[in-house]
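Memo to structure team: turn this sequence into structure tokens by end of day. - J.P.
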Amino acid sequence: MIKSVIKLAAIALAGTAVTASGAVAQVKLPPTITMTAYDTGTSGFNITVAIGKMMKDKYGADARVLPAGNDVARLQPLRANRASISAMGVGVFFAQEGLFEFATKEWGPQPLQITLSSVDCNGLSLAVAGDVGVKTMADLKGKRVGFVVGSPALNQNALAMLAFAGITAKDVKIVEFASNNAMWKGANNNDVDAMFGSTIAGPAKELQTSPRGIFWPPLPHADKAGWERVRKIGPFFTEHNATCGAGDFSKDKPVQMGTYPYPIYTVYANQPEADVYMLTKALIEGYDGYKDGAPGASGLAVKTQTKNWAVPVHPGAVKALKEAGVWSDDQDKHNKALFKRQDVLLAAWADFNKGNPSSDAAKFTEEWMTARKAALAKAGMVDNF
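Reply from structure team:
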């Protein structure tokens, strides 16, 4: 009898522990969540809207999505604590590194960290207007290539794609636009011939259905020299078979090109671990509520997350990923090395600004890049820029 009572008590205690554990892990979101993303109609914006709808339906949180035409504009609300999370592209890497538009007195290296990111059936490359007659990357020599002011991700990525064929900015005609959407509208208006983007972006579909049409020059994976040139400019690119989006390809007819995670849901290092944990857990648990809401959203599945990438995962997100059973010791080691890299860059930035750098913007950037290179070299860390 006594043994039976003890056994029943143990079962009751176990049940209480499970209930308590479940209560601790229950997602609680603030009444309003503000997120930033690229311009309306882009794949990142559409995916973020789908996530916002899930947050409202499942957790009762009102989500606002602020569209922004470049990386600086997307990060500014996050930096000022006016947004909780940003759907970034590879600009998150440039911001972490203090490169390009972030190599300025106003910015410098940013302590950014990530939660979940998407890699799906789409590819990321240079789209070319179909009436230009381009069939390979080499054919882009002399053509008009779009750049977006304040968006180092798009511009550097365009150069990385050209590098596949050994082409540089001097070999093409650079046409600058104020935003990503303006660049794609420029293609419809015959103001530009090639633009970097995602095969599933709304503007790509618009170009496909326009009189000009759309074509994605392949980057054959067997061309190792070409891919080596790509990664010298864009070390975050990986080979990928694109099977969906605006273009002549499908699961049965893939196009060999490149990709990196996009969108990359980004936060700042100083955001509370508990808050980031809840946001990440909401993305994981609410997956079925948004995975079919926009092209590319299904790439946010927790089990298909890109491992050991170029920007660290926030501790709050690590906690959620561990709970989901998709975090390894190898990832943890890699993540800690990335935290150390951010520490080196932030220390270098602080020391640099103590040294009375030039007030001239161009010279300031030049001096910072020299200091940055020296700091990374001293720490024995790789620098491709």
